[in-house]
Every structure is written in structure tokens, then in C-alpha cells.
Automatic annotation (TrEMBL):
UniProt topology in membrane: Peripheral membrane protein
Domain ABC transporter: 20-250
Pfam families in UniProt: ABC_tran
Protein name from the UniProt record: ABC transporter ATP-binding protein
Taxonomy, superkingdom: Bacteria
Family the UniProt entry places it in: Belongs to the ABC transporter superfamily.
Molecular-function annotations in GO: ATP binding
Main subcellular location: membrane
Keyword annotations from UniProtKB, A to Z: Antibiotic resistance, ATP-binding, Nucleotide-binding, Transport
SMART domains with a match to the protein in the record: AAA
SUPFAM superfamilies xref list: P-loop containing nucleoside triphosphate hydrolases
Length: 326
């Protein structure tokens, strides 16, 4: 299967510098601070993630990177250019997958790609060669003449990603790309992104799905209320802020707090962290089986229990005191 090429040497871009470099980046809307002096850098070829709940400042940061929203303060370099003053030059080298599909529903799959390519000034000859590759990449060659309104949600997202590659971008921005998709469609989309990653495409992903960030990102920052709470690879963050395993206990409705206190009293001075959520009690330990047996011996009986490995959700809970999906 052919995968569309992405450029790594556009004119005017210093390939030795980070593709994105933010220093104390800030965005204000009146008295509200959406992005609060954050700093990070994205080297060429990295799959970088911004992980956080809705309203954390992820999409606002993406809009500044995408040169469609001016920063209020700090410094920002994208493709070795300043988005505040060189927006058109940056946008010409970007691929963007927005949160909501903005495809033309009345046009066919092919015509959507063609019209978008013409927007970037690509010739008919270039598009005739490129569109079949993009359709193959998106697993849509048999839908080339189908109107977009007749596609499934997963097909539309794959088409949106294919469209974002029409100009062979130096940088691909993915803003919540799998929101609203069923699990099968999400995994198909992940496969398309893996293929781009293997080709060395620089990508920035915003998501509130921790499994998505763990699967796709080389490195990420955890963002909450416009601030960076932690930065590193998914494995590094889990190792630094969580234990190896977590025991999930579910009790009768309305009994989580009461039983959470009981769990804490049993574990006593063992330096084991316990988090009480509205629907479950989480116990963090390197050997969750041992902890589960101990609680049973003290007649702590949950309605159901589950032992799993720690995830980025647990990292976020440790850093902010609340669940990522709150």
C-alpha cells in the first residue's frame, strides 16, 4: 500500500531546529487565561501529545501553533517562523485535522480532495497523481465517487486525514481526531497514523483519551487549566507518578466514600495511595493481588474488583486530584 510522502525540507525551514518551540506561551481571553505560560519543544519526526480534559487549553494551543490565533504573550516558533507575523507561510506547510469534520457533504470523496488541493495551488497533474495514493492510504479507493454525506463517521475521519496530507505537509496537527468514533473505527484510524509515524512525519495530537496517547505518542505533556503538569514519554510518566498496578474496587451505590475510609484504615501505615472516586475506589500498589488478599482478610468485600496496570489516567489523577474524564 502506498503512503503519501511528507516533506522534511521545505524552503526556509532549518531542519536542525525544533519544528515547534514554545517559551512561556500565553493566551488570554479578557480576564480568562486559557494557556498559562507553557514551554515545550517538538523535534522533527516526533509524535507529540497534549493530554488533558476538555477546557484544559489543548485546542487553544493548537490554534496558536496552526497560526489561526495570535498568542497573548511569550514566544512561539513553528517551522522556524513566527505564527503571529508569518501565518500564511506556516499554514501552507501544515496539515490540519480539526475536531469536527468540515468536509463538503455534497461533493464526492475525490472532489473533496481535489478542491482542497487546488486551495493549496496544486496543479491538476499533481492532483491526478496524488489523489489515488491518498485514497489508498485512507482505505477509500472504492468510495472515490461516493458523496461524503453517505460515508460513515470513521470513513469521514480517514478522508479528513487524507485531505490534510494533500499538500505534503511538514507538520500534521490532529485535534481530538477520534472523538465520536466506535472502537473499531478508532483502531483503523490509529493504524493510518502509525503508518505516517513510520515515515517520520512530525505530528502533534490533542486528546483526552489516555489509551490513544499511550499508543501513539513518543512524548507528551499533561495539561490542566492552561498549565503543564508533567512532561515525558508515556512510560516515563507512569513510572514517575504511578505504581505498577492499581486495584479497582466497586461498592454499592453511595458507599464509595465510606468504604474508601475503611480501605484506608486497613492499609494503615503501608504507604499505599487510595483514591475515592464517585463510582469506585482505587488502590495503588506494585502488587495489587497481595493488597486484594489483605483487604479480604479484613472482611472488606467489594461488589466487584479489577486489577490492571496503571495508565495515564492514573497519572492525571495523581497530578490534579481528579479524573481525566471529569
Amino acid at each position: 500500500m502506498s503512503i503519501p510522502e511528507t516533506s522534511v525540507s521545505h524552503l526556509g525551514v532549518d531542519v536542525s531546529r525544533p519544528v515547534i518551540e514554545a517559551v512561556e506561551l500565553r493566551k488570554e481571553f479578557g480576564d480568562f487565561v486559557a494557556v498559562d505560560d507553557i514551554s515545550f519543544a517538538v523535534p522533527r519526526g516526533e509524535f507529540f501529545g497534549l493530554l488533558g480534559p476538555n477546557g484544559a487549553g489543548k485546542s487553544t494551543t493548537m490554534r496558536m501553533i496552526g497560526a489561526v490565533s495570535h498568542r497573548s504573550g511569550g514566544q512561539l516558533s513553528v517551522l522556524d517562523r513566527d505564527p503571529n507575523t508569518e501565518g500564511p507561510q506556516i499554514r501552507a506547510q501544515l496539515g490540519v485535522v480539526p475536531q469536527e469534520d468540515n468536509l463538503d457533504l455534497e461533493l464526492s470523496v475525490t472532489d473533496n480532495l481535489y478542491s482542497y488541493g487546488r486551495f493549496f495551488g496544486l496543479s491538476r497533474t499533481e492532483l491526478r497523481a496524488r489523489i489515488p495514493e491518498l485514497l489508498e492510504f485512507a482505505q477509500l479507493p472504492d468510495r472515490a465517487k461516493t458523496r461524503v454525506e453517505n460515508l460513515s463517521g470513521g470513513m469521514r475521519r480517514r478522508l479528513t486525514i487524507a485531505r490534510s496530507l494533500i499538500n505534503s505537509p511538514s507538520l500534521l496537527l490532529l485535534d481530538e481526531p477520534t472523538t465520536g468514533l466506535d472502537p473499531q473505527a478508532r483502531h483503523i484510524l490509529w493504524d493510518r497514523l502509525y503508518r505516517l509515524k513510520d515515515r517520520g512525519t512530525t505530528m502533534v495530537l490533542t486528546t483526552h483519551f489516555m489509551d490513544e496517547a499511550e499508543q501513539l505518542c513518543d512524548r507528551l505533556v499533561v495539561v490542566d487549566q492552561g498549565q503543564i503538569m508533567a512532561e515525558g514519554s508515556p512510560r516515563e510518566l507512569i513510572r514517575s507518578y504511578a505504581t505498577r498496578e492499581v486495584l479497582e474496587l466497586r461498592f454499592a451505590t453511595g458507599k464509595q466514600e465510606q468504604n474508601g475510609d475503611l480501605v484506608r484504615s486497613v492499609l494503615g501505615e503501608r504507604n499505599i495511595r487510595v483514591e475515592v472516586l464517585p463510582d469506585r475506589v482505587l488502590v495503588y500498589a506494585d502488587n495489587a493481588e497481595e493488597v486484594s488478599a489483605m483487604l479480604t482478610s479484613y472482611n472488606v468485600h467489594a461488589r466487584s474488583s479489577l486489577i490492571r496496570r496503571c495508565s495515564l489516567e492514573d497519572v492525571f489523577l495523581r497530578l490534579t486530584g481528579r479524573s481525566l474524564i471529569d
